[in-house]
Design goal:
Blueprint: E1 6-8, E2 14-16, H1 17-62, E3 78-85, H2 96-108, E4 112-121, H3 126-142, E5 148-157, H4 159-164, E6 169-172, E7 177-179, H5 191-197, H6 221-246, E8 261-263, H7 264-269, E9 275-276, H8 279-287, E10 292-294, H9 301-321
Parallel strand pairs: 3-4, 3-10, 4-5, 5-6, 5-7, 6-9
Antiparallel strand pairs: 1-2, 7-8
Helix pairs in contact: 2-3
Length: 331
């Protein structure tokens, strides 16, 4: 033969050499196709597994927390509890909307024998504190038979005490920190630092006092006097609300409204609180109902994570550019 198209086999039979090659190619293609189908199946499986995993995580994060829900299903007579924990701010857990919702649910429950505000807070926003104070006063008017008691644990200072002053009675531990009836606003000045670094500040405003709290510009005496006036007015509002809530129980001590903070034992002497006791003590001995139901509005872990993520980003930008650093605070 001119071309070796046929090869002699051990059996003596002759077959085209191309058959083996095609069989091998066909076998490889089938194997590759089989592997591709297997890979696709595993890919679909893992995608479904990932989807199920994310769905379960999302479900767990958004699972409603039934503790604190209102309604007669709470079961029998009880003392209602609402927590005020941490800094009082519209961006934190202790914000007016959350606290007020818990208070409304507590007052509206027909089985509530009394409401306890359990406070552990250094203070915060005067606006948020004012919202809660006003709502407590409104609810007391709507439900005159339901008394409100503030119980301070570790600390109930400044804006937290502002809220406590709306209660019918205030209790604390002998070592609790109570008071700090004052207003503070603080920031930094970087004018000299910028001069040493050779950095030029460029800021454009419409309104001669628009940038009066800019930490990168010199503080004018007129701006300082104006801002001090703002703080003084806010402090006056704070004092008026405390006097309204505490009445003649306050002593004539001229240091009461100075911003100082006292222990629970000292606070009792000057009329800032009415007695020494814990949440359990007040429920059992004062209200007369030791069965406590927590009406505090709870956020899901997913909401807290999302909020903290957004707040962290906003706070970083605010701190970087000196925005919001001078907001008056009850601290």
């Amino acid at each position: 033969m001119s071309q070796d198209l046929w090869n002699e086999q051990p059996s003596g039979e002759s077959k085209p050499s191309g058959d083996k090659e095609w069989q091998l190619i066909e076998k490889l293609l089938m194997q590759q196709n089989k592997e591709s189908r297997r890979a696709r199946r595993w890919g679909v499986f893992f995608k479904l597994l990932t989807f199920c995993y994310l769905f379960v995580i999302l479900f767990l994060f958004t699972l409603p927390n039934w503790v604190g829900e209102s309604g007669p299903s709470m079961g029998g007579s009880h003392t209602a509890l609402v927590d005020i924990n941490g800094v009082i701010s519209d961006q934190d857990v202790a914000n007016a909307d959350t606290i007020v919702t818990g208070l409304r649910n507590a007052f509206e429950d027909e089985n509530t024998q009394g409401v306890i505000l359990r406070i552990n807070s250094p203070g915060g926003s005067p606006v948020q504190s004012g919202y809660v104070y006003d709502e407590i006063m409104r609810l007391k008017g709507l439900y005159p038979a339901t008394k409100v008691y503030a119980v301070i644990s570790d600390i109930g200072a400044s804006g937290a005490y502002y809220i406590a002053a709306a209660a019918d009675e205030i209790y604390a531990d002998k070592a609790s920190l109570v008071g700090s009836i004052g207003v503070i606003s603080s920031s930094f000045g970087f004018v000299d630092t910028m001069e040493k670094l050779g950095v030029e500040r460029r800021v454009f405003t419409a309104g001669e006092s628009k940038a009066f709290l800019d930490p990168f510009s010199p503080m004018k005496e007129a701006d300082k006097e104006f801002w001090q006036g703002v703080l003084s007015v806010t402090h006056k509002q704070f004092i008026e609300q405390v006097k309204k809530g505490r009445g003649d129980r306050l002593t004539s001590n001229d240091k009461v409204f100075s911003g100082l903070i006292w222990t629970g034992e000292q606070a009792l002497e000057i009329g800032l609180i009415d007695g020494l006791g814990s949440t359990g003590f007040v429920a059992r001995e004062v209200i007369g109902e030791e069965n406590i139901v927590d009406f505090s509005l709870k956020r899901t872990p997913f909401e807290e994570f999302a909020d903290r993520l957004g707040i962290a980003a906003a706070s970083t930008l605010a701190n970087k550019f000196g925005v919001g650093a001078n907001t008056p605070q009850f601290k």
